[in-house]
Amino acid sequence: MLLEPRLVKLSTRTGVEVRRSIPNIRKRTIGAWCFVDHFGPTTQTDGMVVAAHPHTGLQTVTWLFEGAIEHRDSLGTSQQVAPGQLNIMTAGNGISHSELSQVGPAALHAVQLWIALPDAVRHMQPDFQHIADLPTFTHENLSGRVLIGQLLGFHSPARVHSELLGAELRMPAGTEISILPLRPDWEYGVLVVQGSARVNGADVAVSNLEYLAPGQTELALESTDPNEPLVMVLLGGRPFEERLVMWWNFIERSHAEIVRVRHEWNERESLGQKGSRFSDFVDNVGGWIPAPDLPNVELKSR
Ligand code: MN
User: Fold this and answer.
1) Given CA atoms 198, 202, 167, 81 in this order, what sign does their dihedral have?
2) What spacing in Å lies between the alpha carbon of 158 and ligand 1's midpoint?
3) How far apart are CA 245 and CA 247, in angstroms?
4) 174 vs 57, 178, 195, 208, 286, CA distance in Å?
5) 10-residue block means of pLDDT along the chain (302 residues)?
6) Distance CA 55, CA 146 (A)
7) Residues 6+ apart with CB under 8 A from 67
8) For residue 156, how far is its CA from the centre of ligand 1 (angstroms)?
9) How far is CA 181 from the centre of its chain?
10) CA of 121 to the centre of ligand 1 (A)
C-alpha cells in the first residue's frame, strides 16, 4: 500500500516544508514508528529554526543526509547533528529542546521520526543518545546502515523500548534487484528520500512510503531511476497495539493527560519546578513555542 505524503508547513520551522507520510489517514503507525517527516533538500540560507518546545511519551530520531543542525535540550545537551550520526532523544515523562540548522554550503536534507514509547516506560526519565559509529553493511547491490534494531545480523547500539528496525539503504542508479529478509510477524515501510524505487513490485517515488503489512518474508528492492542513486529509509516493527492520543508534540493516552502536559508547558514559569515537569535551557535560538489552543472536542485515542 502506497502512502503518499501530505505537505505540512510547520509553524515551528522557518522556510521548511515537510512531507509527512506517517501518520496517514490509511495507516497511523508502523510498529512503534508514529511520525515520519521528510524535509529538504533545501538551501540553508534561511535555516531551520525551531525554538524550545516540549515532548512527552516518545523518542525522536533525527537523521541527516546533508547539512548540520545544532540540538539543545533541557538535559543540558548541546550536540552538533551530522549526516551518518544517530541522535535519539527520549522524551519520556517530559523534555524540551530546540533545533538550529547551521548555515553552510551543503543543503539541509533529513528525516525526523518519532517512536511511541510503550505504556510501561512512557514516563521514564528523559535521555539523549548520540551514536556516531553505527554498523554498516553491503549486501548484493545495497549498502546500508542500521540505525535501530538489527538487520542481516548487524545490530545498532541504540536503546529503544519495543521490537523495532530502522535502517538507511542505498543503491546505485538503475541497478539490479536486491532481496532482504523480513519477519512475517512484523510490518514494514520503505520511504524513498532520493531517486525512485520498485518495492516488492510497486513503484515508489521520492517522499512516498510503501507500506508492507505483516505476512511477507522478503523485501525486493530495485533502483529505477537510471540517473539518480536511490536512498531509502527502511522502518519496521511488531504492530503497536496500544491506542495513542497524539496532539501537537505530545503522545499520551487520554484527553485529560494532554490537557495536563499542555498546561505544564505553557504555565511552567508560574507553576515552578514542583508544578511542571518541563525546565528551561540556554540555546542560540531564543524564545519558546507555546502549545496552541486545544480543539473544542475531546481528543480521542486511536
Ligand atoms: Mn521536537
Assistant:
1) positive
2) 19
3) 6
4) 41, 12, 9, 18, 46
5) 90 70 94 95 72 96 93 96 96 96 83 97 98 96 97 98 98 95 98 98 97 98 97 98 96 98 96 93 92 93 87
6) 25
7) 40, 44, 83, 101, 102, 104, 106, 107, 108, 109, 110
8) 23
9) 23
10) 19
CA of 53 to the centre of ligand 1 (A): 6
- Report d(CA 18, CA 48) in Å as an integer: 11
Architecture category of domain 2-237 in CATH: Sandwich (2.60)
Secondary element (H or E) of residue 101: strand 95-101
Question: Distance between CA 232 and CA 143 in Å, rounded?
Answer: 11
- Distance from Cα 31 to the centre of ligand 1, integer Å: 20
Q: How far is the CA of 163 from the centre of ligand 1 (A)?
A: 23
pLDDT at 46: 58
Instruction: Kindly give the interhelix angle for 255-266 and 268-275, rounded to the nearest 10 degrees.
Output: 110
Distance 54 CA to ligand 1 centre (A): 7
